[in-house]
Design goal:
The structure holds 2 protein chains of 2 kinds. By secondary structure, chain A is an alpha/beta fold. Chain A has 3 domains: 97 residues, Translation factors (Elongation Factor Tu (Ef-tu), domain 3, Beta Barrel), CATH 2.40.30.10; 108 residues, Nucleotide-binding domain of ferredoxin-NADP reductase (FNR) module (Rossmann fold); 86 residues, Beta-grasp domain (Ubiquitin-like (UB roll), Roll). Chain A contains 6 helices and 17 strands. Chain B has a domain of 231 residues. In chain B, the strands form 2 sheets. Chain B has a 7-stranded antiparallel beta sheet with strand order 1-8-9-10-6-7-2. Chain B has a 3-stranded antiparallel beta sheet with strand order 3-4-5, covered by helices on one side. Chain B starts with 19 loop residues before the first helix and ends in a 16-residue tail after the last helix. Classes of the chains: A alpha/beta, B alpha+beta. The complex binds protoporphyrin IX containing FE and FE2/S2 (inorganic) cluster (FES).
Chain lengths: 315, 347
Amino acid sequence: MTRPLLKVAAIETLSPLVKRFRFEDPEGAPLPVFSGGAHVTVEMADGDVLRRNSYSLISDPNDGSGYEIAVRREDRGRGGSRYLHEAVAEGDLLAVSPPANLFALDLRARRHVLIAGGIGITPFLSQLRQLDRAGQPWELHYAVRSRAEAAGLALLPESAHVHLHVSEEGSRMDIGAILDGQPLGTHVYACGPEGLIAAVADQAARLGWPAAAVHSEAFAAPPPGEAFEVVLAASGRSVAVGPRQSLLEALEAAGAEIDSSCRGGACGRCETAVTACEGRILHHDHWLSEAERAAQTRIMPCMSRFKGARLELDL
Amino acid sequence: MTLQFNDETFRGDYTYSNSSAAVRRFPFPFDRDSYMYSVNIEPHPGGPEGSPFEHAFDVDEHYVAEMRDRAITLAGDPLRCQSLPHMELAGWDLLELIMVSKARDYPALFSLARDGDRWHWTNRPLGIEQRFTFLDASTLPCGPMEYITRQAQGDFALLDAREGNLWMDAGMITSQADWSLDFDVGMNFFEWHAPVPKARGMGVFDKALKFLNAVTQEQSYRRLNWTMTVNPRLDTSPENYHKWGPEKRTVTPDNVGTKQFLRVELQSFWRLPRSNALAFPIRCYLASLADLCTQPKWGRRLHRVLRDLDPDLAEYKGFALNRAMIVDYLARHDDGAPTSPGIFPDR
Ligand code: HEM
Ligand code: FES
C-alpha cells in the first residue's frame, strides 16, 4: 500500500534519549482523526535498508492537524530509532501510515487506571485526551528510573490524577496498592517492559479482577538476532536476513509483496504460510496460537526469526 | 445522473419494482456456477461506474421508499434500533462517515457544511435540513446512529472491538434476513453466527474474524451474501415471522417468477476512527427471478447454483419448501450454454 508522505514539522528533545516528532500534511490538509492508543508506521530509507517502525501517537486523537510520536533511541535495536534521531530533520518527508489501534480503551469502563513504565507512557498520552473529552474518570501511574529520563513528564497534563514513581528516589510503584480497592467496573491498562505488564496481570488476577478488565499493549519492537536465510517458494529465490533486520524488512527489500500494519506481531496482517521448515521458527509474535506455532506452518515475518537448515515461504 | 425515486411499498400490496436500469446494475452474487461459503472479501468501494460498488454508500431508486418502510417498522417495534451506552461515540463516527460520503458522492442530493463542530446537513430527497453540534447528542432529535440510519438504506450493525473479538453492541436492523438484533445485542462474533450451518467447521469464521480485527481506517472491504425471499419484503425478521412466513405457501408454478425474489446483501466493513469500533452496513437488494432472467447469463447461472446447492444451506436460507418449483422455473432459462466468469451480465 502506498503511504502518504508527511512533512516533519517539528523535532523536540524531551530527554537525553527521547525526541518528539510532529508530522503534518505538506499541503496542510487535515489527517484522519484516531482513537486513544493508536499507532502509525513510519517508513525510513536508511541507506539501502527500508525501515518501517510503528510508534504510538501521543497527540490529541481528535486533532487532525498533525500526528506526534515520541521516539526513544535504542542503540541496540535494529536501527530505526537511531535513524530518526540522527538522520531526520525538520522539513523532511516521510511515509506515515494512517492510524491503527491495538490498544484501545474499553469504553464500558466506569474508571480507567493507566500504568506506564518508561517509554510505555506513549499510548496513554492520546488516551488521556480521549478520556478527558468523554468526561471519564482516570488515574495514571508512571514509573521511571530517574527524573531526567522521564521524557513523558513534559507531555503530561498538570493533574492530581497523575502519579509519578521514581525508583531512584525510592518511590517505587506498588501495583497491588494501586489496584486494591478500585471500584467495580474499573479497567487497568499496562504498557512498558514485559516485567511490568506481567506484574499488573498477576496482581489483577490475585485480586480477582475479570480478565476482560486487564489490558496491555501487546506489540513490541522486533528483536534482533542471528542472521538466517529464507527461500521464496514461487521463484526459488533465497533472501538473506541480517542480524538487525526483521524477516519482514528483508522480504520487503527483496521486493516481495507482503501486507503489514503493526509490525509488532499483534495485528495478523503479515501472516504467511510456511511451505518447508527444517529447523525451528522463533515465534516472537502475539498472533499465532500455541497449536499454530507448534505446527511450524505459519509465520509472522514482522517479528519472528528462524534457526536451522531451510525455511521456505509461500511467497 | 438524475435519480427518479420510486413510489412503492415493501409490504401489503408490495408495489416494489426494479426499472430495467436497476436490474442491469443488480449486485448478482455468483461469480461461478456453484456456491459454498467462503471468506469472500474484497476492497470497497470500487467497481464499474454505475454499479452498486462504485460508491461507499449506494443510493438508488428505492431510497425514499425504503426509508419510509424503515419508519413504519420502527414505529411498530422500537427495539429494532438499539445502542448500548458505550457505543454513542461509534454512532458519531458512523454519522460522519455516511454524511461525508454521501455529500461527496451525490452532491445533487446531499450536502454537508462544517464549521468546526457546527454542522449543517441537507438531505434533499427526504426534505431534511439539520443544524447540529458534532459530538453533542442533545442537538439532534435522536441519537447519532438512529439519526443517520433513518436516512441511509440498509441495516447497520456497530461492533465494539474488545478482547480480540467483535461485540454487537449497537444496530439499526429493520431489513434483516431472519435474525434479531434484540436477541443478538451484546453477543460476540462466534455467538451471533452460531446458527449458521457448516461454516464454523470449515474455519470460515475464525479466518473472517482475524481479517475483520485487522481492518484499519485505511481500507474498507465488502462481501456479498444472499438468500431467497417471497415477495419484495424488507422486514423478514423473526419478530414478524407470522406475517411473512406463511407467504411462502402462496408461491405457485405460475407466479414463482414474479413472487420469488433473490435477496442480496452488500455487506461492508469499516474501521471507525474515534471509537475504533467496526461498522457493518448490510445493504439489501431485491430482484424477482423474472427480472434476473432478462440477463441470460444470470438465468443460466442461478439455475445451476440453486439446483446444486447443499440442502443444509437451502434449509438455513429458508427456501427448501419451494426449491423444486424455483429450479423448474429457472431450468426454462438455462440452455446449457457456458457462462462467462465474474458477476456482471454479458453485454
Ligand atoms: C462484523 C461483521 C458481521 C456481522 C455483524 C455478521 C452478522 C451475521 C448475522 C446476524 C447472521 C445471521 C445469523 C443467524 O442466522 O442468526 C450472519 C450470517 C452469516 N455470516 Fe455474518 N456477520 C459479519 C461478518 C461476516 C463475515 C466477515 C463473514 C465471512 C465469511 C460472515 C459469514 C456469514 C455467513 C456465511 C452467514 C450465513 C448466511 C447465509 O447463509 O445466508 N459474516 N452474519
Ligand atoms: S504486521 Fe502486524 S502481525 Fe505482522
